[in-house]
Amino acid sequence: MLALWIGAIGILIGDDPLQEASTLPGPNGEPGGNVVDRTAPVVPECVEDCDAVVTRAEMATAVAEAFELPVTTKNFFTDDDGSPHEGNINRMASAGIMRGCGNDQFCPSDDVTHGRIATVLSRVLELPKSDTDHFGDDDGHKLENAINRVAEAGITEGCGDDAYCPDEPLTRSQLVTLLTRALGLDDPVA
Fold it and tell me: Which domain holds residue 118?
């Protein structure tokens, strides 16, 4: 399970997403809004199933909460209705950080790849273009520019041996490491 700690409040993101956080009030006081008052910086932590692959919905919640994206009332997608991640998915779409997968769909249960998290982080951080090709296995990959941006910013070191593994699924522990670096916090203890 991935937890984002804001002060003493933990937002858990996992197979049974946001059980505890789903009782927090939303922007208009409704339950399940997954919005909290920020009194301390968000500190990502993987507390359970750290080798589990991150879904698009889980990533949306983790990034929207970690970077405190503005709340929106607009509903961008039809396949996330009723999901505890819906508000955060809409926050990501409203901010232009994530798009859907076509036909008003978000595909919330699809896996996130290393390349996709690079794109999300490069957008949320508005990272400048990198003139350096940091990895040999992403040449010509559609997400190569974003991958080089997060590498240039020191957020990723790749998967070893001059490789980034752009199409490999992202695990919860990897997401925690990337968010921790992106937020400028100390690297997490595994």
Answer: 113-168
